[in-house]
Amino acid sequence: MSQNSLIFTTDDSCEIGSNCTISTPNHIIDNCIISDNVKLLPYNYISNSSIGASSQVASSVIQKSSIGSLCNIGPFAHIHKNSTIMDNCRIGDCVDC
User: Fold this and answer.
1) 31 vs 49, 70, 76, 94, CA distance in Å?
2) Using CA atoms in the order 46, 49, 51, 57, what is the torsion angle rounded to 10 degrees?
3) Which residue among 5, 45, 53, 92 is least packed, with the fewest CB closer than 10 Å?
């Protein structure tokens, strides 16, 4: 995992896979699962959610949701509670779902 040292928060309940790139600042809290090869660009807030393998998230909020593999989220997307984004999806700029 590549990680800068500015602001990257996580807690013991989160799992982060191998070969992930997590830019700063990012907040990953409350039982998150970040799969292998995920790229988190700056300014994400991710809580109680899972991010599938080889997905990318940019400047977005994801709460109590599941993001599939090979997805591209944001920038500035807001994925609301209980959402499921299937594999190979793109959620574009400023989308609120």
Assistant:
1) 7, 21, 22, 25
2) -20
3) 5
Q: What is the pTM of this model?
A: 0.89
Q: What is the DSSP letter of 38?
A: -
User: pLDDT for 30-53, tens place per residue?
Assistant: 899 999 999 999 999 999 999 999
Other CB atoms within 10 Å distance of the CB of residue 69 = 17
Longest CA pairwise span in the chain (Å): 32
Q: Tell me the C-alpha distance between 67 and 84, whole Å.
A: 6
Residues 21, 37: contact at Cβ < 8 Å?
no
State pLDDT tens for residues 13-29: 889 999 999 998 999 98
pLDDT > 70 fraction of the chain, expressed in percent and rounded: 90
Q: How many CB atoms lie within 10 A of CB 93?
A: 11
